[in-house]
Specification:
The complex is a heterodimer of chains A (92) and B (981).
Chain A: H1 2-5, H2 12-30, H3 35-54, H4 58-78, H5 80-86
Helix pairs in contact in A: 2-4, 3-4
Chain B: H1 2-25, E1 31-32, H2 45-52, E2 56-57, E3 64-65, H3 73-85, H4 88-115, H5 120-131, H6 134-142, H7 146-168, H8 171-183, H9 191-210, H10 216-236, H11 238-255, H12 258-269, H13 274-277, H14 283-288, H15 299-303, H16 306-319, H17 326-339, H18 348-356, H19 366-370, H20 373-397, H21 399-416, H22 418-422, E4 434-435, H23 439-450, E5 457-461, E6 468-471, E7 477-480, H24 483-486, E8 492-493, H25 500-506, H26 508-511, H27 521-530, E9 533-539, H28 547-550, H29 559-567, E10 572-578, E11 581-586, E12 595-598, E13 601-605, H30 611-617, E14 621-624, E15 639-641, E16 649-650, H31 654-667, H32 672-687, H33 690-715, H34 722-738, H35 749-766, H36 769-781, E17 799-806, E18 810-816, E19 825-827, E20 830-832, E21 837-840, E22 843-850, E23 859-863, E24 873-882, E25 885-892, E26 896-903, E27 908-914, E28 917-920, E29 924-927, E30 931-936, E31 940-948, H37 951-980
Parallel strand pairs in B: 5-8, 5-9, 13-14, 13-15
Antiparallel strand pairs in B: 1-4, 2-3, 6-7, 9-11, 10-11, 12-26, 14-29, 15-23, 16-17, 17-22, 18-21, 18-23, 19-20, 19-22, 24-25, 25-31, 26-30, 27-28, 27-31, 29-30
The chains are: A mainly alpha (92), B alpha+beta (981).
């Protein structure tokens, strides 16, 4: 929430994405086996973003895009310890 | 033979590509100029060199402080040499060729260092993708900022040398890195290039440091290399860093504030949302202004950029499994996060940083300034993705189909970037960037040079007061005003300085040609004299009514009207006409030199009164003390004080307040008071000014609360709820604590005052005297309200109240337009008429009058000091050593004010030399509302020197940098010798 909107009063619609990011982050940290699904979801969202963008619905496309990109970012960051240790990811 | 060819093939390929592109771009035989760059730097590089080697640009009269372009000196030096043997078009084409070539070849070499030397083909493709992608097309070439072009061209090669230095620790690579920085120092004309380069260096060093972790020792070794590299970079770049860092801290806050920066960041972040940033697209140029044509809004062109982006994401997943490439993925993600700015997701840290630190504001357009990181890392990931896609499809679909797939992807890249190939990349809507300066300009310049005039300025008319112009030349010109480059004989007054007070004064050069001021010839001469004008060049070829340039109201004056005014001025002589240019000269007897003694001057406190009113009421040389300074010397001078606030309408009668409150209850959000508040809130929301928006929101909330309390207690007779009152009070405290002069909401002071007066009235009705006092004190402190308000009779309900600061006791008279003579004027409640003398003591005063039909009339308070002694003396000689250093001799019969017609800056120092003793003159004021005035409290004959001291920072920086380079080369030689032995 803070990373997206700072400290202050939030509207309900503003809380949806951070909530999903929080779940995504929790899954990536505590359930590494599910990280792969997190990535797949992110990629599906990014694909949806492209389709919706091509239909000229920029706002909706942005919503899916920023959600997908955020989840992907979180997922890749969660591999950071592995990459720091071994230099690369052995298996997603 | 074949092996040799294979070695040079990549370079040959990028050279041929560069050559072909340049051939297309310059096929018309015209060079490119305009936009923010102004006329091409290739038109007259020697002139650019002579201006930019000083941080004070005296040739952009009356002088402007621009420290950041001193780093363009090596570039202009080389161009000025080429200028002697070649034409502007050849120099520009030659430079563009090398920059394009370097972009591709540098990226090729960098990619090889990541993916392995055997994959030359893919490295070639990386070079090509780096040259032809949406970011390069729009943000680099179409934006047409040379700093950005230089950055993009040097970026891969800088990354390569830095990577080698960090990996191998060979000093040779660090030396190459520093030399590349020196050759491309022009890019640091924009300080954000410094940030971009060091983010890049940090990401590369970080990758080597922790991907994978190789122990504490390695961490320390790489940290040491990073710090050493940064340290040597700073040392070798001190020649421009020193003046830039020292002076920028002074200049930047005068031009921008935190809210401006934040507003720009947020409005730009609306264009850098993920769907646009991921495809490196700038929607403003591609879709909004459609500067590359409507084709970019068609389905096919919306789809095309996604093809390479999908390939990049394939590259992301394969790279994460590769030890030498995993770090590139992280760098790429960081680049995306940085470039998208405050756009979602995770955009708030940016906003927070902007709110906390003013200087971060220099990256308020992160996509443009730092976005070049994306194609750099993206190009590597693109070829990784392409290779894996090829191998995968080859296994599944066969060789031919997989090759076809690769070719199709590359075609998508080329097709999308077709303006790069055709030259359309430089198109602006309705204006071409191709320039052909009419020959009349050269003729006029030659004629002016033949006059051998040593000092004075050329005033270019019409003067817009801005910095952009559009000319009706054969190929047109639209961009920054460029007369200081076209006219080399003398400095040119041609555009604004970017500092509000000076620019307001410069506008007198426009207003003087508008009735009724154009009828006052004496006043007009005084304006020209104050600006050290010697020649006037009237540009009849200017597109004076171009609405894109000068706005809907067409602020620029018609040259024909100006010509008729000029032809009737008897202090002007019409000298020559070249094409559409008419040259006038001020008669020698009426000319005022750059450095002069004033024998008739007065102190003026200008407040916010417009320049023509001040000039109308003050017909002497003007001296203005700096804000918040007291100077006993000035107390002996004749003075004029203008009120700080021009006009304040005070409407505070109980009946007016009750009417206002009833209106709110009846019409809710449609009542003018609330409607305005909502408009203010929405306005700041739309432009992203967070602090002002929050204040407006809080004011709406507090107004709602106080109205609710009023309704409950006064109308419904419910007892006051302490909780509601304390909530209201804490909201008000928040508002009052944050209402600062820095905020843009201050431009709505009048509306805020109206709302707060309603608050104040309700609180009185509720008997909350403590809060009434707090709000009243706040309004007075913030100058929303005058110190007192008239209430005694019906005529005094509506009054204009002006604020004055009287700096000394004395006998004052009112100065006002004749139309004001019969209105009821009062000073601190005592009636006064214009011309009447009043004894007034030092302190804060207010003057009020009943609102009349013409609220634009200004009133000033004048003190005539009978004891004042007039100056007399003579400037015996004046020699201009350089634009930042003047020497001469002066004789003064009495202590006097001297005026120096360059924009006021504390960096200008006047030193007197008498009998082996040198004295810096300390009493330095603003003269004639823009220039430098000093009070010399001595008599006799002296040598003097006027110097712009901050230029010494450049000299110091050059010496230190030279020493650093000598040191580096010595270390380099020592290491080479040691290696051999």
């Amino acid at each position: 929430m803070v990373l997206d909107f700072g400290f202050g009063a939030y509207q309900f619609k503003q809380t949806i994405q951070p909530f999903i990011f929080a779940i995504s982050f929790t899954i990536c940290i505590f359930y590494p086996n599910f990280r792969k699904y997190n990535i797949i979801t992110a990629l599906i969202l990014l694909t949806l973003m492209i389709f919706i963008y091509l239909l000229n619905s920029i706002e909706i496309s942005n919503w899916f895009g920023s959600l997908g990109f955020g989840m992907l970012f979180i997922a890749i960051i969660s591999y950071l310890p592995q990459i720091i240790k071994k230099g690369s990811i052995e298996k997603y | 033979m074949f092996t040799k060819f294979k070695k040079v093939f990549p370079f040959a390929l990028f050279s041929i590509l560069g050559f072909l592109i340049v051939l297309f771009w310059f096929k018309d035989g015209l060079y490119y100029g305009g936009a923010e760059v102004g006329i091409s730097p290739f038109y007259n590089p020697e002139r650019n060199l002579n201006i930019q080697r000083f941080i004070w640009w005296a040739d952009v009269a009356p002088g402007v402080l621009i420290p950041q372009f001193v780093n363009a000196v090596p570039f202009y030096f080389i161009l000025s040499l080429l200028q002697k043997i070649s034409s502007p078009i050849f120099i520009q084409a030659f430079l563009f060729f090398w920059l394009i070539c370097l972009m591709g070849f540098g990226m090729y070499l960098l990619t090889l260092s990541y993916i392995g030397k055997e994959k030359k083909f893919y490295a070639l493709l990386a070079g090509i993708f780096y040259m032809f992608n949406s970011y390069m097309m729009v943000e680099v070439w179409h934006r047409f900022l040379y700093t950005g072009i230089f950055l993009a061209a040097s970026f891969p090669i800088l990354a390569l040398f830095w990577k080698k230095w960090i990996q191998k620790g060979t000093f040779l690579f660090l030396t190459f890195f520093l030399l590349t920085n020196l050759f491309f120092s022009y890019m640091y004309g924009n300080l954000t290039s410094f940030i971009a380069v060091w983010i890049l260096c940090f990401l590369i060093a970080l990758a080597e440091m922790i991907f994978p972790w190789q122990g504490k020792k390695m961490f320390l070794v790489i940290s040491y290399k990073f710090i050493l590299g940064l340290f040597l970079f700073l040392l070798t770049n001190l020649w421009w860093l020193l003046p830039v860092l020292q002076v920028s801290t002074e200049v930047l806050p005068q031009q921008h504030n935190i809210e401006d920066n934040l507003g720009t960041l947020i409005s730009i972040s609306n264009q850098t949302i993920i769907p646009f940033t991921l495809q490196y697209a700038n929607p403003f140029y591609l879709f909004h202004t459609q500067e590359f044509g409507k084709i970019y809004t068609t389905f096919i062109f919306l789809l095309l950029p996604w093809i390479p982006i999908v390939v990049i994401f394939i590259g992301v997943f394969f790279s994460l499994k590769n030890k030498s490439l995993a770090a590139v993925v992280f760098s790429y993600l960081v680049a995306l996060i940085i470039a998208k700015g405050a756009a979602s997701p995770f955009g708030y840290p940016y906003i927070w940083a902007f709110m906390e630190n003013f200087f971060i504001g220099i990256i308020r357009n992160p996509f443009e300034k730092l976005g070049v990181l994306m194609p750099l890392f993206g190009s590597i990931l693109f070829v990784v993705g392409l290779e894996n896609l090829f191998l995968f499809s080859k296994g599944k679909l066969g060789n031919s189909i997989s090759r076809l797939l690769v070719v199709s992807i590359l075609l998508s890249v080329f097709i999308y970037s077709f303006p790069m190939i055709t030259g359309r990349v430089f198109n602006k809507p309705g204006q071409s960037l191709k320039v052909k300066v009419p020959s009349s300009y050269q003729q006029a310049d030659e004629w002016l040079k033949l006059q051998k005039t040593k000092d004075g300025n050329i005033l270019h008319l019409p003067f817009s007061g801005g910095d952009v112009a559009t000319y009706n030349w054969d190929n047109g010109y639209h961009g920054v005003e460029i007369n200081e480059i076209l006219f080399t004989a003398l400095p040119s007054i041609t555009r604004n300085s970017g500092i509000k007070r000076f620019d307001e004064t410069l506008k007198s050069l426009t207003y003087s040609f508008v009735s009724p001021y154009s009828e006052n010839k004496e006043q007009m001469l005084r304006v020209f004299q104050n600006f050290n004008v010697r020649y006037i060049v009237l540009h009849k070829d200017i597109n004076w009514n171009d609405k894109d340039t000068y706005g809907e109201n067409g602020e620029l004056l018609n040259p024909a009207k100006i010509e008729s005014v000029l032809n009737n001025l008897d202090f002007l002589e019409k000298k020559q006409q070249f094409g559409q240019l008419v040259i006038y000269k001020i008669l020698d007897k009426d000319y005022r030199a750059i450095f002069s003694i004033s024998n008739n001057n007065q102190v003026v406190y200008p407040g916010q009164t417009d320049i023509m009113k001040i000039i109308s009421l003050s017909n002497k040389d003007i001296i203005t003390p700096l804000a918040n300074t007291e100077n006993d010397l000035l107390k002996s001078k004749t003075q004029i004080s203008f009120p700080y606030k021009k006009i304040q309408y005070v409407e505070s009668s109980p009946s007016a307040m009750i009417a206002s409150i009833n209106d709110i209850f009846a019409n809710q959000s449609q009542s003018p008071l609330i409607k305005k508040l909502l408009e203010i809130r929405n306005y700041f929301y739309s432009i992203g000014y967070i602090k002002s928006r929050e204040l407006a929101e809080n004011l709406i909330l507090s107004t709602q609360k106080i109205l609710l309390i009023y309704q409950q207690t006064v109308s419904s007779k419910v007892p006051i709820s302490n909780l509601q009152v304390s909530e209201y009070e804490s909201l008000m405290e928040k508002i009052m604590g944050k209402y600062s002069k820095e905020l843009s909401i201050r431009s709505f002071d009048v509306n805020i005052k109206d709302v707060l007066m309603v608050h104040s009235f309700i609180l009185k009705e509720l008997g909350n005297q403590a809060m009434v006092k707090t709000i009243d004190e706040f309004m007075i402190r913030e100058e929303l309200l005058p110190v007192y308000r008239e209430k005694s009779n019906i005529n005094e309900i509506l009054r204009e109240v002006f604020k004055f600061k009287v700096s000394q006791d004395g006998k004052y008279s009112l100065l006002a337009d004749s139309s004001l003579k019969n209105v009821d004027l009062k000073i601190n409640n005592e009636s006064i008429t214009p011309g009447q003398y009043l004894e007034i003591k030092e302190g804060d005063y207010e003057i009020s009058r009943i609102l009349d039909t013409d609220p634009k009339n200004d009133i000033a308070l004048g003190l005539n000091n009978a004891n004042e002694a007039f100056s007399s003396g003579e400037i015996i000689g004046l020699k201009k050593d350089s634009p930042v250093s003047f020497k001469g001799r002066i004789r003064l019969d009495k202590p006097s004010f001297v005026f120096f017609a360059q924009n006021y800056n504390l960096g200008w120092v006047l030193t007197l030399f008498k009998e082996n003793k040198q004295t810096e003159v300390k009493d330095h004021f603003m003269g004639n509302l823009y220039n430098n005035a000093w009070w010399i409290n001595e008599t006799g004959e002296f040598d003097f020197k006027i110097e712009f001291k901050p230029q010494n920072n450049v000299t110091t920086g050059i010496i230190l940098s030279l020493l650093s380079w000598i040191g580096i080369l010595a270390i380099f030689c020592y290491l080479q010798i040691r290696k051999k032995t």
